[in-house]
Write a structure and sequence with these properties.
Keywords: Coiled coil. With 354 residues, the chain is of the alpha+beta class. Helices cover 68% and strands 10% of the residues.
Length: 354
């Protein structure tokens, strides 16, 4: 780990001091978990945790130990999802081991049945076999066949049980995977999901030569709106933008919230014109929705977004494509907000605005 500069060191101590003050002010116990949650909040290291802390303290005036534990496990401790994944994986392995044991048993039963049939065949081929001996052989064959049939029915029943159990475990693993990639506030993809899908889209475009576009949007004056109407209403705004994005794109398109009020749309097999159409559709749809405060029914007016669009260029990485889309979005803000700017705009024009 690199050494901190003097300024960084001083800032870290200030963050720590402020975290301790907030722990005391909001009646949180002085535990390592509590310190980790409040330090992360003060330093602004996790926007989702920050928003949740603001909401909880606004609602209750305190942050209880139970709330601290929930925040830590949800946003800071990856062990919860890891333990659920490990438990499900171990369950699958246990079921597979049982299936292998059942198959071994079935193979052994089949081998014994085959040996019995061979023995019966040899007995029947004997020159001195009489009618009574034939009846004995047939009776033994019937008993052995019944035993094999019973074993097979047991095996089928256990296989069905194992199949159902494995399907349940598979669903558990899938639920854990989805949860780890989902923004809990808006229900769309989180930063991890966004970064994974952006890398895949860029790599695919580089190999296949197919176009991909990235749309980045940011809510205008969100901090001011948040401060004016409260964090619960701010959460409502974030959900509204996410819902509008979901309604405006095709199902195979990736949408995500990867910052506080910053969202992304990854558009595979999409050219600049189509990407701008999607961006404009989202922008006008967000602007066309009147925001109403749920608790009072008060109209809070309308919100707007600034949007940047970047088109994949040969040699682009996920980072360079995102940086260009971000630059276009900030250009849109500096140009007056509530507009779409794409990277087809001349560099001189964007630099003049910047």
């Amino acid at each position: 780990m690199p050494d901190l500069s003097s300024a960084d060191l001083d800032r870290s101590f200030l963050f720590g001091q402020r975290a301790m003050e907030l722990m005391k002010a909001y009646r949180s116990s002085a535990t390592p978990r509590s310190y980790a949650v409040w330090y992360t909040y003060v330093a602004g290291l996790n926007p989702q945790l920050t928003e949740t802390v603001k909401r909880l303290t606004a609602e209750h005036g305190a942050l209880t130990d139970n709330a601290v534990d929930h925040l830590f496990e949800t946003y800071l401790d990856g062990r919860r999802l890891s333990s659920e994944t490990e438990r499900a994986s171990n369950g699958v392995l246990a079921e597979i081991e049982q299936i292998m044991e059942m198959l071994d048993t079935a193979l052994g039963s089949t081998a014994r049945y085959g040996a019995s049939l061979q023995a019966f065949s040899q007995d029947l081929a004997a020159p001195a076999v009489n009618r009574a001996r034939v009846r004995e052989i047939i009776s033994s064959l019937v008993v052995t066949t019944r035993d094999v049939a019973a074993n097979n029915r047991t095996l089928e029943a256990r296989m069905r049980e194992s199949r159902n159990e494995i399907e349940t475990l598979r669903e558990t693993l899938e639920a854990v995977r989805v949860e780890s990639l989902t923004d809990p506030l808006t229900g769309i993809g989180n930063r991890k999901h966004f970064e994974e899908m952006l890398h895949k889209a860029v790599d695919h475009s580089a190999v296949q030569g197919q176009p991909v576009c990235l749309v980045v949007l940011d809510i205008d004056h969100f901090k001011r709106f948040n401060d004016l109407y409260g964090h619960l209403t701010g959460d409502q705004v974030l959900r509204l933008v996410a819902m509008t994005m979901r309604e405006s794109v095709e199902t195979r398109t990736t949408i995500a919230r990867f910052g506080g009020e910053e969202f992304g749309i990854i558009l595979p097999d999409c050219d600049r014109t189509s990407a701008r159409e999607v961006a404009e559709k989202v922008r006008t749809s967000v602007m066309g929705r009147e925001l109403v405060k749920r608790s009072t029914g008060e109209s809070l007016g309308r919100i707007t977004i600034s949007v940047g669009v970047a088109v994949y260029r040969r040699g682009d990485t996920a980072v360079s494509l995102l940086e260009r889309a971000d630059h276009c979005m900030f250009t849109a803000k500096r140009s007056g907000r509530n507009r779409v700017v794409d990277d087809g705009t001349s560099a001189d024009t964007m630099n003049d605005v910047a």
